[in-house]
Amino acid sequence: MCGIAGLFGEFVSGLMNRMNALQAHRGPDGQGVFEAPEVGAALVHVRLFILDLTPAAAQPMHSPDGRFVLVYNGEIYNFKELREDLILRGHHFKSTGDTEVLLHGLSNGKFLV
Predict the structure, then answer these.
(1) What b-and-e string marks burial along 22-57, b requiring 16 or more CB atoms within 10 Å of the CB?
(2) Most exposed: 35, 39, 56, 78, by fewest CB within 10 Å?
């Protein structure tokens, strides 16, 4: 199971790297850090390969327009169908996993229902 953590508030330099180090045992296949000290937000992720084993599925994942950043650990069972619907709506994907489907769905203004 991957590990995720976030911080919203006063930014402390180096804290997110320490948080990732504490959860490293949850995801031996990679790690990522997103920090936006100007708004007091940070997200970290340690990765365990499940669906998409490529670097394209690395997290934190950014939306194509750069407005959203997502860390996610879970499984969307119908992500392939949701992905196809998003492709029909003009979305383009870099990865083959469910995280990017979730990100596109959320950044679309509403998720598919």
Answers:
(1) ebeebbeeebbebbeeeeeebbbbbbeeeebeeeeb
(2) 39
pTM of the predicted model as reported, rounded to 2 decimal places: 0.83
Whether 8 and 69 have beta carbons less than 8 Å apart is answered as no
Parse the chain into domains and list their residue ranges. 3-107
Assigned CATH for 3-107: 3.60.20.10
* Adjacent-strand bridge partners of 69: 62
Residue 105: its H or E element: helix 98-107
Cα 19 to Cα 34: distance, rounded to the nearest angstrom:
12
CA 93 centroid distance within chain: 14
Residues designated as active site? 2
Q: Collapsing DSSP states into helix, strand and coil, what is residue 44?
A: strand
Output the six-digit token pair for 105: 């769905």
DSSP letter (8 states) at residue 55:
G
Q: What confidence tens digit (pLDDT) does each residue in 42-83 have?
A: 999 998 888 788 888 899 999 988 889 999 988 899 999 999
